[in-house]
């Protein structure tokens, strides 16, 4: 437990961050957890208020995290949360100095996203039995993921008014409430239309705006659909590593393999920084090297 005044202070900061940057509920929860865990760590050693934490206190916490084996990525996010909190606190004149000012983010190894081959994607997309309304729903969702490169969270949160069947477009609300328009493609559009005609009317118990719904008619969660992806991968006997972003990675990699422009891919994926998109060039290059080694007579 932490003092009620500290809880309120953290909520005030998160409210301001939401108003200014439009952070998602997942980011909000992660930032809150990071700040609370840091504060609890220091409180076990000395009775301090959150606003009186020093750079030494924070360095001790970061050292403890390294010793516990926390990843550089999660530590970087934690440090981002702390930096934003104390910058806000200084601006609000709640404290005079920012203890995070000289703290450096840990260097992160460049993680190469794993992607399925085009044949593996075909097997995954063909795994659902579309005579069943739930699997028809899943088929439409898988096709849309691969056709658009949406994040799973963006997919499950789609509302009906975000989709234009006539224009073959989906209006995606991504991170930071940023909007982008992404083409659906003929195949994904066909399965989406089938879902709307044959499955959604059966699943929807009462009118609402969610595109994809559960058997009970409620909104589908990210975690529930992730279990569905793993189920179909097992049905298709796909043994490659899977993550909720697997089809997003495949979308990006296969587009690059077929000559897509990196800037266009950046727009489709909703990346604010081109450097985030550039990591897929490494995946595409690796794939081309594998094809060369396999098929060239002098490789």
From TrEMBL:
InterPro entries found in the cross-reference section: CB, DNA_brk_join_enz, Integrase-like_cat_sf, Integrase_catalytic, Integrase_recombinase_N, Integrase_SAM-like_N, Recomb_XerD, Tyrosine_recombinase_XerC/XerD
Q: Where in the cell is it found?
A: Cytoplasm
Where in this chain does the record put each Core-binding (CB) domain? 4-90
What are the protein's UniProt keywords?
A: Cell cycle, Cell division, Chromosome partition, Cytoplasm, DNA integration, DNA recombination, DNA-binding
Gene Ontology CC entries for this record: cytoplasm
Assigned protein family:
Belongs to the 'phage' integrase family. XerD subfamily.
Q: How does it assemble?
A: Forms a cyclic heterotetrameric complex composed of two molecules of XerC and two molecules of XerD.
| Protein role | Site-specific tyrosine recombinase, which acts by catalyzing the cutting and rejoining of the recombining DNA molecules. The XerC-XerD complex is essential to convert dimers of the bacterial chromosome into monomers to permit their segregation at cell division. It also contributes to the segregational stability of plasmids.
| Protein name according to UniProt | Tyrosine recombinase XerD
């Amino acid at each position: 437990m932490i003092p009620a005044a500290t809880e309120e202070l953290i909520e005030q900061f998160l409210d301001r961050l939401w108003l200014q940057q439009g952070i998602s509920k997942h980011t909000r929860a992660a930032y809150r957890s990071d700040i609370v865990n840091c504060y609890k760590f220091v409180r076990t050693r000395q009775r301090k208020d959150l606003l009186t934490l020093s750079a030494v206190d924070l360095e001790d916490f970061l050292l403890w995290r390294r010793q516990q084996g926390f990843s550089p990525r999660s530590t970087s996010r934690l440090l981002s949360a702390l930096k934003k909190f104390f910058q806000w606190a200084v601006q609000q004149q709640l404290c005079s100095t920012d203890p995070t000012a000289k703290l450096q983010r840990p260097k992160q190894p460049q993680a190469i996203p794993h992607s399925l081959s085009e044949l593996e994607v075909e097997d995954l997309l063909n795994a659902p039995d579309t005579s069943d309304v739930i699997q028809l729903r899943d088929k439409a969702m898988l096709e849309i993921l691969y056709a658009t490169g949406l994040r799973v969270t963006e997919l499950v949160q789609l509302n009906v008014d975000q989709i234009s069947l006539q224009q073959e477009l989906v209006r995606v609300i991504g991170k930071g409430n940023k909007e982008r328009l992404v083409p659906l493609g003929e195949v994904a559009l066909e399965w989406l239309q089938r879902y709307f005609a044959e499955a959604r009317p059966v699943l929807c118990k009462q009118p609402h705006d969610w595109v994809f719904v559960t058997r009970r008619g409620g909104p589908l969660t990210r975690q529930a659909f992730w279990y569905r992806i793993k189920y179909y991968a097992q049905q298709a006997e796909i043994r490659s590593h899977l993550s909720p972003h697997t089809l997003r990675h495949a979308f990006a990699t296969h587009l690059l393999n077929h000559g897509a422009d990196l800037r266009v891919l950046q727009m489709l994926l909703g990346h604010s920084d081109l450097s985030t998109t550039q990591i897929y060039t490494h995946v595409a290059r690796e794939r081309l090297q594998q094809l060369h080694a396999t098929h060239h007579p002098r490789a």
